[in-house]
Structure formats: structure tokens, C-alpha cells
Design goal:
Its EC number is 2.4.1.-. This is Glycosyltransferase family 92 protein. By secondary structure, the protein is of the alpha+beta class. It is about 25% helix and about 30% strand. The chain folds into two domains: about 120 residues, Immunoglobulin-like, CATH 2.60.40; about 260 residues, Spore Coat Polysaccharide Biosynthesis Protein SpsA, Chain A (Alpha-Beta Complex), CATH 3.90.550.
Amino acid sequence: KMRAGKKSYFAAAMCIITVTSMLAVSYLQLQRFSHQPKVIQEGRRCGGKIVNSTITALTGNKTFIISPYFDDRESKITRLIGIVHHEDVKQLYCWFCCQPNEKVYVSKAKIDVHSDRFGFPYGAADIVCLEPENCDPTHVSIHQSPHGNTDQLPRFEIKNRKAEAFSFDFTVCISTMFGNYNNVLQFIQSMEMYKILGVQKVVIYKNNCSHLMEKVLKFYIEEGTVEIIPWPINSHLKVSSKWHFMQDGTHIGYYGQITALNDCIYRNMERSKFVVLNDADEIILPLKHPNWKAMMNSLQEQNPGTSVFLFENHIFPETVSSPMFNLSSWNTVPGVNILQHVYREPDRKNVINPRKMIVDPRKVIQTSVHSVLRAYGKSVNVPMDVALIYHCRKALQRDLPRESLIRDTTLWRYNSSLIKNVNKVLSQTMLQTQI
């Protein structure tokens, strides 16, 4: 009798497990189905005004769209890089227009707010929509509802639709230039160092800078090195110049830096072999190799399957200088002369130096500032004897006597070509004579 009881218990348990798993499967299918694109209109002209600005506010000002990108690494999706209020934005829909039959499909979006919000109410977000089959939409609109009139909605061009051959080996992303930036000399030196190390393109998300800096940017744009992405985020949100929330009524940290970095990775996914994420006062200096190409070839060989290479940041305080390379013709240019700053702060006990990255953009899904949040492939910390980040800025350890600093003249290896190239830029932008 007992055994029969056990059997029936077992049967009942199996039954419950089966039903539960069937429900779970059908729930997941429903979930997936609810995100499947559905035709809602046929034979209608695809309306809406095509948007060209970098930041577009949707109705209600809780969602801001930067740009949509085609992403077929797992399934055929449109991934929109945006900024959303992490609590108030619950539902969004992608409206795809399919040519040539003029069918309009609506797809429910998955809203993925990045985990690195640092306490701010607004954060970087991926707004992800499945694309309709047998249609490669060129544009998409975003709406809070699956119903309504698309004629009023802004339309965004979906980038990365066509895979291309790489135009560049290295692209540097600088997010975000703000605060009436005027560190002109150090900026020119960084740009010329990047070029010596093998960079072909520098993408700058520019909020604002000084009049003089505009002149320098114009020179680099005409030369073909710099691409400016306008970044008027403070006309949409209250921005903080801090990276973490201070309970001060601001909406987003550090001028929306994280959103800009993610946009920069997707923007360069099809055109650059590597994307370098660092600031204008930072240079990844190779110690064992003459340039980045040789360094990355060696690093990739030693670390197969790695898509993210992290370099350790080291502070070279701008307050401690060497008398070498005190060039009188540079003294009239505002900003720091990095060749005079070759003393670095020692590591602090129990403090991990932040890192910046060189990544394979096709392997990154989401990035933060000092690490990637989601990627295909491994991340590797590059040892300090291979390369370090030369970061010339205000001292972090202000009370250190000069004797405690470490003299590190790696930068001087490049001095002759750096001086020659900087002088050329100064003379061509007339900064040497006019100031």
C-alpha cells in the first residue's frame, strides 16, 4: 500500500513539474512572441521626419535617442543607444517601415538600462527590437505605444546596415569635451602622440570648448583626423560633472559619458579594427613595442579569444616638472606641456588603479568607463611592463614629497617627432605667432 502511495506522489510531482515547465516554456514563447514584429499597417507611406541631431528627446522627455544600430550577432535586431529614466520608462515600441511594400511593423522593445548608473536617475540604455523578417528596414521610429500615427514621429536611420572593410586600425573615442575646455597644448600633444602610435581617427563627443580650442579642432577636422559628434546633453538634462550622484537634483553623471562611449563603439564597429576608450589627457604608452599595432599583435597572439585589453592608469602630476623641454615657443599656448612631466605617483596601498581599454568593437555589447559590462570574449589586464596609461593631470597624492615619485621618461622616446609635429600644428593654426 505504501509503495502505491509513493508511486502516486511521484506521478503527481512529475505532473506538476511537467505542467510548470510547459507553462514556463509557453510564457517564454509568449514573451518572445510579444516582442515579435507585427504588421499593423499596409500600403501606407512611411511618414515621420528624418532626424539628424545626436540627441533626440521623445515625448515626455524621459527617453532620449542617440542612434539606432543594426546588430545581427545573435539575431536580427535594431539596437538603439539611448538615455532613459531608470524607473519611469516602462514600455517602448519600434516602428519599422519596410520598403518597397510600405508595410509598417511594430516591435515591442526590450529596455536594458546599463547597470553602471552610479545612483543617477537617468542612465545609458539599450533599446532592443527584433526586426521583421524578409525586410531590412533602413529607418525606425520609437513610440510609447503600439498604436498611433507615425507621421508625427521622428525617424532615425539604422546605422551599420552594411558590413564594410575596415577603414582604420585604431580609433580613439573621447567622451565628453565640456567645461569650456582650453587645455590646448596638452590636447595637441595627445593628438600627435596618438598619430605617432598609429591612430587614424579620433572621435570627440563635444559639449563645449574655448574659442582657441575650436581653431585647433577645425585644423584636425580638415586634416581628417578628428570627427566631432555634437553633444548638447545639457539642453535636455541637468548634468553633473561628477561621476557619482550627489543628491543634488542632477539627472545624469559626467555629461552622459557612458552613453557617448557606447555610441562610439557601435558607430565604429564596422569601420575600425580596434576602438580605444580614453580621455584627452591620457595616452596608452607601449614600453616593449614601438607602436600600438606591434603591441596589439603581440597581445592578441598571447591572449587568444580576448576582445578587451585593459591598461593601468598612472598619474603624472602636472605640478611636478622637469626643466627639460621647456620650449619658449610653447609657453604662449594655454595648457600643460606633457614632456616636462615625467614623475609618476607610486601605487597606493589598497587602491586599485582604474583602467582604460582597447577593444574589438564587434565583440562588445555594453561598456562602462573602466571595464566592459557585456562582451563576447575575455577581458585581460595588460601588465605594466608592456604598457601603461600616461595620465598627466592634477596630483591625486598631493602631499607626496618629490623623492617619493618615480621618474619615468618613457614619453621622451618620442620627443623629437613629437616636438616637430606639435610645432607644425602650432604654426599651421597660427597659435605660435598670434597668442
